[in-house]
Structures are given as C-alpha cells and as structure tokens.
Design goal:
By secondary structure, the protein is of the alpha+beta class. It has a single domain, classed as Glutaredoxin (3-Layer(aba) Sandwich), CATH 3.40.30. It has 6 helices and 4 strands; from the N terminus they run αβαβαααββα. A 4-stranded mixed sheet has the order 2-1-3-4, sandwiched between helices.
C-alpha cells in the first residue's frame, strides 16, 4: 500500500515563521484588541476599523450587559420575595440559547476586565499589554498604541 505524503518545503515554513516574527516585532502591528464599553458608550467607527484591520483579533466586552439582562429578567416580578424568586428562576431556566450566550459572554467580559486590571471605561487593551482609557474610537486608540510601541522600540 502506498501512502500519500505531504511535503512542505522548508523554505516555505521559514518564510511563514519569519513573516510572523517580523509582524510581532513591528511596532505598527497589534495582534489583539479587547474593547471594554458600556451599552451607552458604543464603539465608534467599528465597521470601517474591522474592514481596514482584518488582521487584528477584536473582542468587544460590554461591561454592563449582566446588569441589563438582570433588569430585563426582573421586570414585573411580584412584591412577595418567595414568588419573585420562583418566577426569576423559571425565567432563567427558560432563557433562549442566544440570551444564555449573552449572559456567559457578559460574565467572561467582567472577568477579563478584572484580569487586565481595567479600572474605568471605555478602555481598549492591546496585546494583553497596553491600555488606552477614555476612547471608544479604535483608530485613535491604535494610534496611541503605535506611538507607545515606537517609543518602546527606539
């Protein structure tokens, strides 16, 4: 029996590795952005940014999403605590897949903000290393990051 073999020329592997290394060493390059916002402070110019920078992994974290979902689930609860608790548990059990995913993402977002030490928002964290506070425009935040990286590599 003849086994098909797949061979990748060594020079191709080296070109790929060198390309990845040069991007990481390039102060113009950002691999990941974690954006921390609230529902009333949305990201500006998101679609043009994603179109211009498809190489950047962009994660959006809405920090008040749990509170908003909690308010939604709490609407119309009875005044009696035990009845309210039963109804709230029923509502939680009946959450759609989409709402459950939103709730899970919201909890993960808060944990991520705590892990980074994000103290206020909006905030944009680049490559787990650099945070820009007070901006919800990814283009402007990226410029701050690039200036910092250039200063670090000079």
């Amino acid at each position: 029996m003849i086994r098909p073999s797949i061979s990748i020329p060594l020079c191709s592997v080296l070109v790929l590795l060198i390309g990845e290394m040069s991007q990481a060493d390039n102060p113009e390059f950002a691999a990941r952005m974690d954006v921390f916002i609230t529902a009333d402070q949305p990201i500006t110019r998101l679609e043009p940014f994603v179109a211009k920078h498809p190489e950047i992994v962009l994660r959006i974290h809405t920090l008040d999403a749990i509170e908003n979902l909690e308010n939604e689930l709490s609407k119309g609860l009875p005044g009696d605590a035990s009845k309210a608790k039963r109804l709230a548990l029923t509502r939680l059990k009946q959450l759609s897949k989409d709402k459950r995913a939103q709730l899970e993402h919201a909890a993960t977002s808060i944990a991520t903000a705590l892990r980074y030490g994000v103290m206020k928002y909006p905030a944009i964290v680049f490559d787990n290393d650099f945070v820009v506070y007070g901006l919800s425009d990814p283009f402007r935040a990226l410029e701050h990051y690039r200036r910092w990286r250039l200063a670090e590599t000079s």
